[in-house]
Design brief:
170 residues; 4-stranded mixed sheet; alpha+beta; 7 helices
C-alpha cells in the first residue's frame, strides 16, 4: 500500500488528500496533482477573500498564515488522531476548484479519475452541489449517474465526502 499524503491545517484542524482532484497519492505526486492548485489558493492571502457561493464556505486564503503540513498517513505517528479529529474538507476543496478554475477543469480531472467522478456525482445526488448536474450531463452524457451507480457497486471501498460547514469547524 505505502504512504498516502495529505495537506493538513494544524491551526484550523482541517485536511484533504493530495489526490482529492485526481492524480497520485504518494510522495512523488506531492505538488503535481490538481489538488495542488487548491492548496495554493488556500495559502494565498487576499485583501478581500474570494467566497464563491458554491464553495462550501471555503475561500481563497482560508489557510493563509496558519500552521500547515503535508503529512503521510503511514509516516505520521499521530495520523489516526488527525484522521479522526480533523475535518476532511475534500468536498469543499472540489467546489473551490470548480468555482475558481471552472467546470471544464473539474470535468477534465473527473474524466481521468473515477474517484473524483464518483465524488462529484455524490455531491449532485445528495443535493450538496445540484448546480453540477447540467455540466456533468453535458460532459459525460445523460446516463452519467448510471455509470456512477455501476462504479459504486464495483468500488465498495469508496467513501464519499460531504461538504463541511467551516463556520462551525474547529
Amino acid at each position: 500500500m505505502g504512504t498516502y499524503y495529505h495537506y493538513v491545517n494544524l491551526t484550523k484542524r482541517e485536511r484533504f488528500s493530495i489526490a482529492t482532484l485526481g492524480g497520485g497519492m504518494k510522495h512523488g505526486a506531492i505538488g503535481r496533482t490538481p489538488a495542488t492548485r487548491v492548496f495554493e489558493l488556500l495559502l494565498t492571502r487576499r485583501k478581500q477573500p474570494d467566497r464563491p457561493p458554491e464553495s462550501g464556505s471555503l475561500s481563497v486564503g482560508h489557510w493563509a498564515g496558519d500552521q500547515i503540513a503535508i503529512l503521510g498517513d503511514d509516516s505520521e505517528p499521530a495520523w489516526e488522531k488527525i484522521k479522526e479529529e480533523f475535518a476532511d474538507i475534500a468536498a469543499n476543496a472540489i467546489m473551490l476548484f470548480k468555482a475558481i478554475e471552472g467546470f471544464e477543469a473539474l470535468g477534465e480531472a473527473a474524466a481521468s479519475s473515477d474517484e473524483l467522478f464518483m465524488e462529484v456525482c455524490h455531491l449532485i445526488v445528495t443535493r450538496q452541489a445540484a448546480g453540477l448536474m447540467e455540466p456533468m450531463q453535458a460532459r459525460f452524457g445523460s446516463d452519467f449517474l448510471s455509470h456512477y451507480g455501476k462504479l459504486c457497486t464495483e468500488r465498495k471501498w469508496f467513501v464519499p465526502k460531504d461538504l463541511v460547514d467551516l463556520k462551525h469547524n474547529g
